[in-house]
Amino acid sequence: MPTQPTKLGFIEQVSLLALMISMVALSIDVMLPALYDIGRDLNAGDANERQYVVAVLFLGMAIGQLAYGPVSDSTGRKPAIYFGFGLFLAGTLLSIFATNYDTMLIGRFLQGLGVAGPRIVSLALIRDQYEGREMARFVSLVMTVFILVPILAPALGQAILFVGDWRMIFVVLFILGFGVLVWFGIRQEETLVPAKRAKLSARRIVSAVKEVFLTRAAFGFTMVGGFIFSAFLGYLTMSQQIFQDQYGVGDLFAVYFGVLAIALGLASFVNARLVMRFGMRKLTHYALIALTVISFGFWFYTYIQNGHPPLWTLVSFFMVTFFCIGILFGNFNAMAMEPLGHIAGVAAAVIGSLTTFVSMALGTVIAQLYDGTVSPLIGSFAVLGALSLAAMIWTIKTAPSGSEG
User: When comparing pLDDT for 105 and 45, which is higher?
Assistant: First the structure.
């Protein structure tokens, strides 16, 4: 009989799960420098229609997440992730050979539908092994590794464009996705033993969904995460237009994007160090207050500058704001999942899907408001920051005091 692989070490597991979750960010960020070329070659409409290459992936991911969690509770974590990677690779192949914009969008939808598997089931896999502040620490460390992707991905995409066309970006995505799948299959053990698996049934899924909605901490923190990610998704989808079209940075777009991503990674690292001492709620409360106040102040400054503030001030604003968001990302997921460990797979699916639907809907609206100025984007950070702060205060007041680890 073949020998069993040695148990995955802590550092290797953090790295593996970070790469799996980061397939979403990689699928988005690596092609941001190529959006103009894709739109031109495939006859997309106006400049704002390029954004759908990003938005439709989130649509597929939002729908896919609803299925993967319940399936993983029934079959185990690994089969669900295998299936998701299979869909992702199929969508990548379709995008490689797309000859029109509609085919490209279908391929991107399949990529999103597939990448939802590793993205959401990985959270359930983490919840199988950790809880409370330990889970928040693990998620924050995953995010620290994860953030290397948005730092490097646009530069990778730009480098590929120097030697080939945008289709080569999808070829690289296919190779990387296949490599991570093989690594996961060989090294990661199944974390949901057969004795703890639940039979897949519509009644159980409906019951679990109802529990997520009726558990105030879970629902409240999910909505807060959705509001915050809406503004960030708006930034992602219009970042190429802001930096290259509005500010004319050209090939330096990848540098600016990567520098800003460092703020997210630094915040995730800091959060992993502080969350065990101060707790998730205190850190997220202060981060939300800072984000909201700074965003309203810079929104007013942007208005004075007719929607076109100096580039250095805009980058400075994004650095501070993204640091706050980096504190919020891992903690909101952990707080939403904390009371739902007994239904981790379904909970991860519903929470992930709700967050993505909210952020996709609001983020797409924000991005479509782009009018050649950054005013709609800065305003979205301010308004959604205030809305998130109000929702968090409501959640903390109505949720049981002992629900935070």
Answer: 105
